[in-house]
Design goal:
about 150 residues; alpha+beta; four-stranded antiparallel beta sheet; two-stranded antiparallel ribbon; 5 helices; 6 strands; about 35% helix
């Protein structure tokens, strides 16, 4: 025998199963921007480029980006980002106002322009423990077709 016991085999096979279940290697995520307005700008650039992966990296909580911290199925996350992407696509955007909540989150009012239409959408951002700012909430109902809530 070469010194490999049944216990070694069980440990090795368990490690392989766990590695396969977890994707095999840690997920690499681009860092969140250090300036909150840059997070909004990068997110909306990703929206217009249909870059769902980058959108998910810029969306999250104080614990980190949704690609790392979310308990949702990745397919569900992608579907949610597809819906957000379709609703937020625009020709241009500008940040028209910002405020801070009692919990130190920042809220940016962003004006999106689509043809002759303009809508204001609130983006709530939180400072991540890992550094940088992430979007924690989007007032997506403001961007819904037929919404009369605009400037």
């Amino acid at each position: 025998m070469c010194g490999v016991t049944l216990t070694h085999r069980l440990l090795a096979s368990s490690a392989l199963v766990l590695a396969a279940a977890c994707g095999g290697r840690p997920q690499r995520v681009a860092p969140a921007p250090l300036v909150p307005a840059t997070t909004v700008t990068e997110f909306l650039r990703a929206v217009n480029e249909a870059n769902l992966g980058r959108m998910m990296e810029l969306f999250g909580t104080e614990r980190g980006p949704s690609t790392v911290t979310s308990r949702n199925d990745p397919a569900v996350q992608r579907r949610q980002m597809e819906i957000i992407q379709r609703l937020l696509r625009s020709e241009s955007h500008r940040i028209v106002d910002s405020s801070q909540t009692a919990s130190a989150d920042l809220v940016y009012q962003v004006e999106l322009t689509r043809g002759t239409q303009r809508v204001r959408v609130p983006f709530t951002l939180v400072e991540a423990r890992t550094g940088g700012w992430l979007i924690v909430q989007i007032g997506i109902d403001q961007a819904m077709p037929g919404s009369r809530r605009g400037p």
